[in-house]
Amino acid sequence: MQLGLLITLFGFVVLIPANFLGILAVYGLMFISGYLIVTLNVPYTVWLQKNIPHQLQGRVFSVMSTCGMAIMPISILLFGYLFDLTAVSTVVLCSILFVATGMLLIIFTIMTSKLSKLKLNEAVIIPE
Q: What is the pTM of this model?
């Protein structure tokens, strides 16, 4: 949720003129986002390793890695197309995209918070 709020803030900071305060705000948000990513990823990975059975960890982590790698070129194509398509100023479009992405991340976090209550220790491999 914190990362979604931070991405939403990036959308508003982009609109600040590129003077000293604007650059300082961007650097400050980048520092906070780097800190948040580290402090959120480490406990999340530890939680996954503790709650996913050992025989399933390879599958789960490979699917997560594959999804993360597959999203990168898709997002580049999508946002490249959006920037070519729109006649709106690039700064305004960046702001809108940051705010929309942050809001989607917040909604996704709220919706998936119920998944953290699943008992993954009881998961088993179904024989074929």
A: 0.59
